[in-house]
Amino acid sequence: MQPPNLEELLKRGQDRFKGMLPGGVGWGGRGIAVLVLLAVVGWLFSGFYRVEPDEVGVEQRFGRYSETSLPGLRYHLPFPIEMVTTPKVTRVNRVDVGFRSAAERGRAVQATGRDITEESLMLTGDENIVDIDFAVFWRINDARAYLFNVQQPAPTVKAVAESVMREVVGKRRIDDVLTEGREDVQRETRESMQRVLDSYGAGIDVTQVQLQKADPPAAVIDAFRDVQAARADQERLRNEAQAYSNDVIPRARGQAEQVRLEAEGYREQVVADAQGEVSRFLAIYGEYAQARTVVRERMYLETMEQVFQGINKIVIGTGDGQGVMPFLPLTELLKRQQPAPAVNRSEGHQPEGPK
Hints:
Number of strands: 11
Radius of gyration: 58 Å
CATH topology of the largest domain: Tetrahydropterin Synthase, Chain A
Mean pLDDT: 78
Structural class: alpha+beta
Shape: rod-shaped
Distance between the termini: 165 Å
Largest sheet: 4 strands, antiparallel
Oligomer: single chain
Number of helices: 10
CATH class of the largest domain: Alpha Beta
CATH superfamily of the largest domain: Band 7 domain
Order of helices and strands: HHEEEEEEEEHEEHHHHEHHH
């Protein structure tokens, strides 16, 4: 089989092109001019473009940044003189680290996906391993920097997120990462990511870092839960012991203070009594020193009065030789003159007398 004749093919093509021109071969030159004019007009019209409300237009002239256009119908010199890129600056983008989620209509939505252990396993500050899945939400805040300063923005955001998260987790204990410190981890990661991306001039604003999962590795999660349960029991017992201590110690201190105050009161009483006795003795001794006979007789009489006050007395005289001397029984008379006890009328009977 012989190869096709190139000259013959070119000739056939020229004949077809001439047949398409208006007026046949005679109008060939004018037809070409019309086609060129139409091509130029079409090329000029190709410079019109539309910027949507969630976009900005970044124009480039011979590859160099020219200006940024706002939403609406715009025009730029046609390609290859100028070209325009319209990134969506209001859309919130999402990057998943440690797992892969589904995507719907260009926006990432969470779904049950595959776990990427190379990204999710991290080492904590107390040398434990934790499995962390998280998502980073970001948007464009400077379209010019976003297009010209970073070659691959989304992979850059992901690499920065993974690096910063490993640094933040590496400074904390595993209990802090798994429990009450999650909010602090998210906040510190977002702030650190923003500083790194700003140093790159990426034109990206990190809006949120969201922890999806923070657990021990699957191989040791059962043992870790046992340890957590034991720590919870330890904390509970410690709290109960502290509560018992807070109840017993103040009570014992109160009792000790009460005993001390009672002892001090007894001491003050004994000292006061002793000082009173001393003052009384000194007073009596002063009187005694001034009139010894009178004071001695007075003391004798007072003592005998105290001795004979509550007993029956019989006076025996020896002056007339009769032995017994009659006396007036004043005590018995006083007892007889005492009023009788009142009748208990509510019970309807009188109290019984002495038997």
